[in-house]
Automatic annotation (TrEMBL):
Positions of the SIS domain: 46-186, 219-361
Name of the protein described by the UniProt record: Glutamine--fructose-6-phosphate aminotransferase [isomerizing]
Highest taxon of source: Bacteria
Keywords of this entry: Aminotransferase, Cytoplasm, Glutamine amidotransferase, Repeat, Transferase
EC class name: transferase
Molecular functions per Gene Ontology: carbohydrate derivative binding; glutamine-fructose-6-phosphate transaminase (isomerizing) activity
Length: 371
């Protein structure tokens, strides 16, 4: 068993450290050699005419894969300008979603076996949608039944709490967004080249975050004494906040909530009291001032704030918070692939500090094949 963990204490930690490799493998062979475009036509069969005809996209998934779908919505809308709705599968399948022949349904599933996701996908196909599956398991049920499959090459994921599968799903969305953008002509070659350049820099940037794990261990240990904490952010930072909060709940059993930073004042601010930890994601330039003012609001009510920010904002943000963790500079749409990593490590070390079974949390299963 020790050998399988390759010297790591837990599968989760091993899988967190495998992310640079998972990113590289998921990108491999999918980016044109000149670094100017992404073409997935060798793998996905949808014609360029079909891609041009898509009028809306539904992303459907459960758990962590749903959180990847929340980022996927922003990615596709900003790169390809197609309207996207993201739903949890157990809601989608029962709400008579409006599906037309030009609706593309994207299901996201690490295992490709989640019962609700599979049922939602079948329901969509019955209603005439084309389904593209983003999955980590080549021969899975979802992969077999979908019209198109985009595989995340994260390799087997053993820990119940998903890490490298989630972040590889983000990479799949970037590639898909670039593919759709090329066919639909929504990004210039210069823009696509810039995004691809930043995309291929992510694996090394994740490595540099992993080198700072010791700092995050300390943060996690002090947070582990609290009964409750909050994650806040705007835009894709809010999507990552939701994943960070889920991860922490799953393995540390500490209660936490993720909030859209601007929504705090409509209720949740009442829960902020002296010493309560708040993890604030602040990586988006156009939302920077707004999020900073939310950080100041929770600080003023006694919160202990850890900011996860960009190298560029670090010095300024530091003036308003208790602790800062910086991620390397990248494009705004790509920050989730970096900012999720410190949150994964915080969850891991919090669970470890509390003596829980990190890889096999109580009440949870790796793949939920019953409804
Ligand atoms: C379970 C796992 C989660 C996972 C979810 C969806 O709840 O514990 O980690 O995100 O299922 O799984 P899938 O295989 O469809 O991505």
């Amino acid at each position: 068993v020790t050998a399988e963990k390759a010297g790591f204490d837990h599968f989760m930690l091993k899988e967190i450290y495998e992310q640079p490799k998972a990113y590289r493998e998921t990108m491999l062979g999918r980016i044109a050699e000149d670094g100017q475009s992404v073409n997935l036509s060798k793998e996905i069969e949808m014609s360029d005419d079909y891609v041009k005809s898509i009028s809306k996209i539904h992303i459907v998934a459960c758990g962590t894969a749903y959180h990847a779908g929340l980022v996927g919505k922003t990615v596709i809308e900003s790169l390809a300008r197609i309207p996207v709705e993201t739903d949890v599968a157990s809601e989608y399948r029962y709400r008579s979603p409006i599906i037309t022949p030009d609706t593309l349904v994207i299901v996201v599933s690490q295992s490709g076996e989640t019962a609700d996701t599979l049922a939602a996908m079948r329901e969509a196909q019955r209603n005439g949608a084309r389904v593209l599956a983003v999955t980590n398991v080549v021969g899975s049920s979802v992969a077999r039944e979908a019209n198109d499959v985009l595989v995340t090459w994260a390799g087997p994921e053993i820990a119940v709490a998903s890490t490298k599968a989630y972040s590889s799903q983000l990479i799949a969305f970037y590639l898909l967004g670039l593919h759709l953008a090329r066919v639909r002509g929504t990004q210039t070659t210069e823009q696509m080249t810039e995004i691809i350049h930043a995309l291929t820099a992510l694996p090394e940037q994740v490595e540099s975050i992993l080198e700072q794990a010791a700092v995050l261990k300390q943060v996690a240990e002090s947070m582990s004494h609290h009964q409750s904490l909050f994650f806040i952010g705007r835009g894709v930072d809010y999507a990552v906040a939701q994943e960070g909060s889920l991860k922490l709940k799953e393995i540390s059993y500490i209660h936490s909530e993720a909030y859209a930073a601007g929504e705090l004042k409509h209720g949740t601010l009442a829960l902020i009291e002296d010493g309560i930890p708040v993890i604030a994601l602040i990586s988006q330039e156009d939302l920077y001032e707004k999020t900073l003012s939310n950080i100041k609001e929770v600080k003023a009510r006694g919160a202990h704030v850890l900011a996860v920010t960009n190298q560029g904002f670090e010095a300024e943000v530091a003036k308003s918070v208790d602790e800062v963790f910086s991620i390397p500079k990248t494009l705004p749409v790509l920050t989730p692939a970096l900012s999720v990593v410190p949150l994964q490590l915080i969850s891991y070390y919090a669970s470890l500090a509390l003596g829980h079974d990190v890889d096999k949390p109580r009440n949870l299963a790796k793949s939920v094949t019953v409804e």
